[in-house]
Design goal:
By secondary structure, the protein is an alpha/beta fold. The chain is built from 4 helices and 9 strands; from the N terminus they run H-E-E-E-E-E-E-H-H-E-H-E-E. The strands form 2 sheets. It has a 7-stranded mixed β-sheet with strand order 5-2-1-6-7-9-8. A two-stranded antiparallel sheet has the order 3-4. A hairpin with a 5-residue loop joins strand 8 and strand 9. The radius of gyration is 17 Å and the shape is globular. It starts with 6 loop residues before the first helix and ends with a strand.
Length: 188
């Protein structure tokens, strides 16, 4: 894995999203922890800013069983930022996607940890802060799409970490363990 980018790189990335005089501001969508952008139809969609707290590239060893024909795993956010402390003004985005890591019982260098990240330490507090930050940068009446996989931790435990109530949701995946939940930010 490559180390996180420097703050100079982040300043440069933020400048690329700064509005030009007389133009609109930030793109309407924020992916707060994009990882490999696997569920995006277009992982370079210009309507979104892709953030993650890490950058990494992992190329499978040639000849390793099960890796032939696989693409490299690449975590390359537009902006290196932690979802617990997003560098955007309040009320900036019409839609926020929040797909944090779902598992804590992973090795640090395994495929899933590389592709999706890993819950560590005080993960409940981290997710609580993440929900709060995602709602902070969301415009009033904006939508938060939250994705969670119940492989280790039930969705009901995670939803306790935010005072906001989901509107509706959907289960997906082979074992129906992945949940997609839609929230609507109140107009305070």
């Amino acid at each position: 894995m490559t180390p996180p980018e420097t703050s100079d790189c982040n300043e440069s990335a933020m400048a690329s999203f700064a509005p030009a005089p007389g133009s609109a501001s930030l793109p309407p969508v924020l992916d707060a922890c994009c990882a490999c952008r696997k569920f995006w139809f277009d992982p370079t969609d210009s309507r979104a800013i892709f953030c993650d707290k890490r950058t990494a590239t992992r190329i499978s060893d040639v000849g390793t069983p099960g890796t032939i024909g696989r693409k490299p795993l690449v975590v390359k956010p537009d902006l290196v930022a932690d979802f617990t402390s997003l560098p955007f003004p309040s009320d900036s985005f019409a839609l926020v996607v929040f797909d944090p890591p779902h598992m804590e019982k992973l090795g640090d260098s395994g495929h899933y940890a590389m592709a999706y990240g890993k819950l560590c330490g005080e993960w409940r507090n981290e997710l609580r802060k993440g929900f709060a930050e995602c709602f902070r940068v969301l415009k009033p009446h904006g939508t938060l799409i939250f994705k969670w996989c119940e492989i280790e931790i039930p969705l009901s435990e995670v939803l306790k970490l935010t005072p906001e109530q989901p509107l509706f949701g959907h289960r997906s995946g082979k074992k129906m363990q992945t949940h997609w939940c839609a929230f609507l930010k109140p107009n305070n």
